Hints:
The structure is a homodimer. Chain A has helices at about 20-35, 40-50, 55-65, 90-100, 100-115, 130-140, 155-160, 185-190, 215-225, 265-270; strands spanning about 40, 70, 75, 120-125, 145-150, 165-170, 170-175, 180, 195-200, 205, 210, 225-235, 245-250, 255-260, 275-280, 290. With about 290 residues, chain A is of the alpha/beta class. Chain A has two domains: about 5-75, Winged helix-like DNA-binding domain superfamily/Winged helix DNA-binding domain (Arc Repressor Mutant, subunit A), CATH 1.10.10.10; about 95-290, 3-Layer(aba) Sandwich (Rossmann fold), CATH 3.40.50.1360. The longest helix of chain A is centred in the first third of the chain and has 17 residues, at about 20-35. Strand 7 of chain A pairs antiparallel with strand 6 of chain B, so a sheet runs across the interface. Chain A binds a DNA duplex (30 and 30 nucleotides) through helix 3. Chains A, B: GO terms for molecular function: DNA binding.
Amino acid sequence: MTQSEQKIATSPSSARERTRAPARARLARILERLNEGGSISVTDIAQEFGISDMTVRRDLAELERDGLLERVHGGAVGLKRGPLEVIDDAEPAFEARTRQNAERKARIAQAAARHVAGRKAIAFDLGTTVLAAANAIVEAGPDPQLRAFSNSLHVGMTMARAGIATYMSGGLIRAEEMSLTGKEAVDGFSRYYFDVVLLGASGMTAEGVFDYSPEEAAVKSVFLQRSAERVLLMDSSKFRRISTVLIATLSEISTLITDAPPPPDLATVLASAGVRVLVADPSHLPERSLE
Amino acid sequence: MTQSEQKIATSPSSARERTRAPARARLARILERLNEGGSISVTDIAQEFGISDMTVRRDLAELERDGLLERVHGGAVGLKRGPLEVIDDAEPAFEARTRQNAERKARIAQAAARHVAGRKAIAFDLGTTVLAAANAIVEAGPDPQLRAFSNSLHVGMTMARAGIATYMSGGLIRAEEMSLTGKEAVDGFSRYYFDVVLLGASGMTAEGVFDYSPEEAAVKSVFLQRSAERVLLMDSSKFRRISTVLIATLSEISTLITDAPPPPDLATVLASAGVRVLVADPSHLPERSLE
DNA sequence: ACAAAAATGTTTTATTATGTTCGAAACGGC
DNA sequence: GCCGTTTCGAACATAATAAAACATTTTTGT
């Protein structure tokens, strides 16, 4: 599953995650070749590394799940970028992240939109998954009484464009996320209460939920404190990954919406922390609960 | 030139054309050739890839089904127009206004960028002209010490994307302008002082400067109070026009940057109100002052 | 060192892509 | 209009690839 993505930032002390260097090197090399030629074939890769076709397919399947390539009969091709984009110069990093795991995020977003249907005051955190959820809510024909709150410029524009009353905090813009940070951002939300908050994050372990940016942690904290329900949107590639800053312990989360069941160890602690887990199924089943 | 040696993903090591590139890669290549030459023939493609004519036909049929080309006897030709890739879905009204008087606004924006070069704290009001000025400042290679302040989401994203420290107010989003309004917006700027504010407006008479939206007037008022220099950006089509709400009297404006000299009566009152008028000339004269 | 877990390899079976044949249709010259 | 030539498309045959199930090896944690 996630065997190759573990070794990001583990401290030498608590290195209880298994790491497999050879496989990782192979995956990196596969992506490299993909960027060189635009496409790769299964048998070529198998010959290059002296491994079986089956293993190559498994590698490709994993890379595809993480949204890094697209499998086709006989091999794989890179993700199609828009043909000759000259128009929009939206920050490339964000664009790229939007494409990553796009399908999973779409499923999560759909599930989230259904989950919060009917709520009147929704807070939107940062990240591409949350933005996808905002889009899904808009497309689902939102309640006209809905009021949205966010410190993400992307979310704000999305919701406002759809005619939804949208409140933003003030603050200093962090360009990477187009998010508002700092004391103003925290204060801006400190006078409201929300029915539900949709949170994004970059990692989760038994310890809790992690994110990259310390600047944004404070706002997330406010959202957590002031929301009746705290919904975390996170695709399964982030399970068992840690990151810079601990946002919340698991017990602070009401509901986790994801695209695949968490690994057994996480599932256990999630259950004991009272987190409701919704798995957004690829089939059109509305929601599958497994608490 | 690229028709003979175009193995798409052959391994550099041993495997020489032992395996074919995935079918999907072939489709991409076919489209590529179509865009180069305008038309392609079945037999040419078959030879290039070393596949049978029948397979080429199946490929072309698939591409035609996707609306990417038009099959003709013996091959295929490209479509007259690329299949409309509409990526940016910024609100049309704003888009349309951006195009209106685009050339005048560009000239004004250039002049404004030169005018505020070196200032450290710039406040940006709303409107397409001000946004154009923000873009011009970014493209001119802004001072890294510059701090920008705005209640316009468009301006905020533009500046932040360029790596400029950008502060936004909070507030309720007004979708038409993607602006932040209300008490939070006013309060958000009430603790700062600015070297200069770039103001937009929709009309001007001897009485003063007008704009459409009452919601935004309060923020403009704050900008005016707290800025050392108050620069109004307004194209000449707005002279002698009034609008919903009076933002400021002429004496509150330090500088007017426009694209053509104001009519005599306005020029007189502007002069007596102590407004410096800069006309951004279409020729490359930097600035022409006529106070 | 051991046992458990994960990764990889192997075999089998299904699926898909490609090649071939051949009659029908389209094209170009007369 | 006729004709010979080329191209097309349907049907079937074959090769290539994918997926599933199981066996084997490697790694990991105790």
